Amino acid sequence: MSIRAWLVRRKIRAVFRPRELANAPQEARLKHFEVALKASESKMPGAPSDAVVETVDEGVVKGEWISVPGAREDRILMFNHGGGYVWGGPKQYRDLGARLSRAMKARVFLLDYRLSPKHKCPAAIDDALAAYDWISKNNPGVPITMAGDSAGGGLTLAATHAIRDSDRTNPVALALISPWLDVTGSGESVQANREKEVMLEADGIKIAGQVYSGELGPEDPRPSPLFGDQAGLPPTLVQVGSEEILLSDSTRFHEKAMAAGVSVHLDVWQKMHHVWHMQAGIVPEGKRAIADMAAFFEHHWGN
């Protein structure tokens, strides 16, 4: 294991501690995640000095706009952060948001959705839909793309299912980064890559999945959008590391989406850890993956 991978693992496993949280009451879990979220604010890289950050608090719609010089007014990326649905927010994603804005020449909206265990599924989906509607209403005619990492990738897919099944206009394209699409943990890679994975633990994602799905149950296609109907989705890019325990979430989604006639491209990055894009400042592959996302969206902006 490389030093950089070890450091990444230490950070995330400080949040997801399955042995301590497995039998803990909800109040204890909630307190743990609140403390971990607050502590991470000073440890995660912030926005660069040339980035403009604008806080949004419009009732149920909360988040941040982030953009760098050169970002176009006629391009919007809505980004849903990861963190197992129990951790994370715009502050932890300002560095990545700015990198995405720079690479894509777009304004980026970092959604601040409600977290479990206090708010279970479908609260996060409802928040994503409200934000999507708000962005669409306030930016008529501007093409919107959507992306997310890990749990945010699952939220991106679940929200797009709901958008497709309504009278809304689909995002013009999606990007799913190391997406967590099956909170049951039934993928073959959960066990096959158990010794290779440097960030997540099978027990940890199982607990987070149970906490998030709540009364719906982990097999419901809202917390586990892998089990939903994939027909009618916009063009989709999936990026995942070859040694992730969530690899099977991406490969199974790719198969289902292809069978449903979706234009979907799967990129499996060799020996990459979970959401390596977050370490783009020190991991060259992170910069290249972001550049690939930008090239994918460039093809679909239509402007």
Automatic annotation (TrEMBL):
InterPro entries found in the cross-reference section: AB_hydrolase_3 (IPR013094), AB_hydrolase_fold (IPR029058), GDXG_lipolytic_enzyme (IPR050300), Lipase_GDXG_put_SER_AS (IPR033140)
Family: Belongs to the 'GDXG' lipolytic enzyme family.
Active site: S150
Domain of life of the native organism: Bacteria
Entry GO MF terms: hydrolase activity
Keyword Hydrolase: yes
Keyword Hydrolase (UniProt): yes
PANTHER family recorded: AB HYDROLASE SUPERFAMILY PROTEIN C4A8.06C (PTHR48081), ACETYL-HYDROLASE LIPR-RELATED (PTHR48081:SF30)
Domain Alpha/beta hydrolase fold-3 positions: 77-278
UniProtKB keywords: Hydrolase
Organism whose genome encodes this protein: Kordiimonas lipolytica
Protein's name according to its UniProt entry: Alpha/beta hydrolase
